[in-house]
């Protein structure tokens, strides 16, 4: 908080001078005591009051939830969002010329509907809608606004004119996107398990390219875990509706990492060149991919693990307290991702054996308080997911903000999530999760 003295000269002309002291009260006293002082003032933040001029912005309830109009200007020119989908119609009026990188894109369907083979045709329309949700041009007096306007799109066509495709095309598409410079990958598709997904997602994660995946729309039809959302390392996204409730269609099998708006999303229509409403976890996923692009643009050195941590640490908790199967960590919060100092935690070892002492370096937690440590294991077994949460006790946060705890992980699982909950330095409840491997 900056204190100002308001000084008025003999002609009545006001000037404002910053006053610094050890306390705010002392600053105010000094400001009042300066010669010519008409009193003190406290500085307030201000920003342009313009809302974007995109005519359909009022229809985009999702952007209200995500506070897109409040986001600071972020330079997204270095961000390349891979849309592994039905292709992207690059000629839509709400993409900037060259924004959809047809020069880098590809077609992995091979059905002769993309003769140029560059992914820049979209007979189904799904991929164009998804790409527009992430990065349609904001403030161009056309159509809609988006979270990551200014980011580039890498079109990777893996699904045909009916929106159908194979696990092999998707896995190959993930690898292609990594090899062609994607900074984040969005996959708004879901299906049964295949062995091809895990190595492809692992390849992306190792190259620090987060893979954001729709959790799937089978919430009312079996609700079994779907892939690639269930692959370790994938960021699985469930969908909420305008009431902030997880949609009935949204998969809630326990794979969810985070939630985002997905019902009644107004966006680009490849078939007419105009605009259309669509619903699904497909529409929620690109909101998270766009949030990742914003985070990566403002935190260029961040690793894929840190991106996941930042997403879950800033998510707005919803539903039952703490992480849950409906919302994962909560509703994605791009505003907090780019405007707050995201709490981070590093754990001494992410690969733990039978009995391991972990050290939690959590500057975000308040010294002297206790943090609780729990461990959640999900094990994928074909289409069944087994999830188990174990309390591992508490640890006291030292003056340096470090907590140490001996943990005994569940031996039957290969991967899990370690969750640390505590009170942040500013008094708010903070939850940080980290993926661990047992071996
Ligand atoms: Ca627009
Ligand atoms: Ca919750």
Automatic annotation (TrEMBL):
Chain segments carrying region Disordered: 22-56
Basic and acidic residues bias: start-end ranges: 22-32
Protein name: Peptidase S8/S53 domain-containing protein
Annotated family: Belongs to the peptidase S8 family.
A UniProt-annotated Pfam family: Peptidase_S8
Keyword terms, alphabetized: Hydrolase, Protease, Serine protease
Stored SUPFAM superfamilies: Subtilisin-like
């Amino acid at each position: 908080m900056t204190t100002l003295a308001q000084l008025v000269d003999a002609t009545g002309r006001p000037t404002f001078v910053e006053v610094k002291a050890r306390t705010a009260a002392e600053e105010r006293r000094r400001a009042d005591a300066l010669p010519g002082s008409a009193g003190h003032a406290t500085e307030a933040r201000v920003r342009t009051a313009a809302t974007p001029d995109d005519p359909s912005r009022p229809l985009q309830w999702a952007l209200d939830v995500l506070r897109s109009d409040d986001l600071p200007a972020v330079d997204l020119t270095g961000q390349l969002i891979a849309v592994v989908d039905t292709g992207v119609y690059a000629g839509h009026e709400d993409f900037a010329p060259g924004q959809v990188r047809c020069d880098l894109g590809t077609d992995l369907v091979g059905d002769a509907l993309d003769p140029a083979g560059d992914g820049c045709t979209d007979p189904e329309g799904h991929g164009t809608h998804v790409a527009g949700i992430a990065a349609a041009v904001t403030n161009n007096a056309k159509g809609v606004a988006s979270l990551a306007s200014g980011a580039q799109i890498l079109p990777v066509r893996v699904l045909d004119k009916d929106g159908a495709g194979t696990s092999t095309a998707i896995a190959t598409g993930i690898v292609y996107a990594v090899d062609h410079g994607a900074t984040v990958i969005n996959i708004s598709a879901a299906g049964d398990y295949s062995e091809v997904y895990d190595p492809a997602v692992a390849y992306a994660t190792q190259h620090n390219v987060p893979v954001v995946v729709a959790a799937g729309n089978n919430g009312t039809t079996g609700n079994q875990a779907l892939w690639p959302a269930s692959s370790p390392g994938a960021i699985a996204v469930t969908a909420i509706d305008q009431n902030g409730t997880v949609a009935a269609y949204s998969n809630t099998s326990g794979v969810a990492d985070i939630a985002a708006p997905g019902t009644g999303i107004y966006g680009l229509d490849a078939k007419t060149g105009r605009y259309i409403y669509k619903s699904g976890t497909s529409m929620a996923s690109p909101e998270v991919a766009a949030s990742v692009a914003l985070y990566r643009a403002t935190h260029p050195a961040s690793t894929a693990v840190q991106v996941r941590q930042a997403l879950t640490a800033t998510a707005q908790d919803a539903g039952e307290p703490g992480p849950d199967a409906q919302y994962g960590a909560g509703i994605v919060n791009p505003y907090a991702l780019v405007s707050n100092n995201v709490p981070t935690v590093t754990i001494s070892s992410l690969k733990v054996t039978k009995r391991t002492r972990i050290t939690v370096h959590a500057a975000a937690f308040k010294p002297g308080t206790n943090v609780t440590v729990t461990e959640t294991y999900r094990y994928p077994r074909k289409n069944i997911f087994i999830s188990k949460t174990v309390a591992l006790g508490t640890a006291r946060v030292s003056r340096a903000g470090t907590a140490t705890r001996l943990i005994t992980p569940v031996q039957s699982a290969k991967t899990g999530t370690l969750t640390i909950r505590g009170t942040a330095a500013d008094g708010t409840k903070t939850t940080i999760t980290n993926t661990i491997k047992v071996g």
